[in-house]
Amino acid sequence: MNSRCASVSRLIPFSCVDGPGSRLALFLQGCNLRCKNCHNPWTMGRCNDCGECVLHCPHEALSLSAGKVWWQSDICQQCDTCLHMCPQQATPMAQNMSVEEVLEYIRKAVLFIEGITVSGGEATTQLPFIVALFSAIKTDPQLQHLTCMVDSNGMLSETGWQKVLPVCDGVMLDLKAWDSACHQQLTGRDNTLIKQSITFLSGQGKLAELRLLVIPGQVDYLQHIDALAAFIKRSGNVPVRLNAFHAHGVYGEAKAWPSATPQDVEQLAQRLRERGVDNLLFPALYL
Ligand code: SF4
Ligand code: SF4
């Protein structure tokens, strides 16, 4: 039995938006970026059991015992009060799950899914768990047909990728801005490592999808369109998913940012097509 554990913020048995086909999606807690546009900002941090949220839970679903916060899922009303007040941008509802426990969920869903996607937060902050989980899937006769994918922000070294690639079928990765200064402004970190990840993964044939997020007035794709298009072309004919920002669920200054319109997305698409990048995927809906 594999007892390696991860802090899991959410498990969705059937998802159609986390990679190709129907997939079980596992969201790991913790992130190494601080994106202003994050739609799940409470997945960024790790709970330190400070207890601040306990008294504020309107449904008494939280308690503090032996220096640890406990969450009762059967009482919780999913009101999200605890998420909004946590100083760590964490959640008391994240659960430690072992590889074996996740495999149990996968076995129950196996007839209805094509694979699993590990997302976040930033999934690769818990890389040893991912390697153990994917290895267990790939060696289980009942599960080994499932594809194993990672949804990542790309903040992982080549050495890290080399650990997971032998058991990983593909990575979906975001490039949140072209210029490092703009990326730093949006996420708190520069994007040198992310570009290296894109280049490395495409060279290994494991870059399943590159994602660009259109945030009007905030991202710099159009200002650097020649360099961006040339970079994407060097990464092969990888599918490029164009996502449209909307403010639903974000905290802080991004709440006031305007949503991206179909025209905003089409403008970027047109500029990319003119430069030979035409394997484009579009938002299913706009908010
Ligand atoms: S979830 Fe946040 S507020 Fe609640 S105990 Fe953990 S760190 Fe403290
Ligand atoms: S979401 Fe948080 S605050 Fe709301 S009932 Fe559940 S534990 Fe309590």
From TrEMBL:
Q: In this protein, which residues make up the domain named 4Fe-4S ferredoxin-type?
A: 38-65, 67-96
Record domain Radical SAM core: where = 17-278
Extract the InterPro entries matched here.
4Fe4S_Fe-S-bd, 4Fe4S_Fe_S_CS, Aldolase_TIM, BssD/PflA/YjjW, Organic_radical-activating, Organic_radical_activase, Radical_activat_CS, rSAM
**Which cofactors, if any, are listed as required?**
[4Fe-4S] cluster
Q: Which GO terms describe its molecular function?
A: 4 iron, 4 sulfur cluster binding; metal ion binding; oxidoreductase activity
User: Tell me, what's a Pfam family for it?
Assistant: Fer4
Describe the family membership recorded for this protein in Swiss-Prot or TrEMBL. Answer: Belongs to the organic radical-activating enzymes family.
PANTHER family of this UniProt entry? GLYCYL-RADICAL ENZYME ACTIVATING ENZYME YJJW-RELATED, PYRUVATE FORMATE-LYASE-ACTIVATING ENZYME
What's the protein called, per UniProt? YjjW family glycine radical enzyme activase
Give the organism the record lists: Citrobacter arsenatis
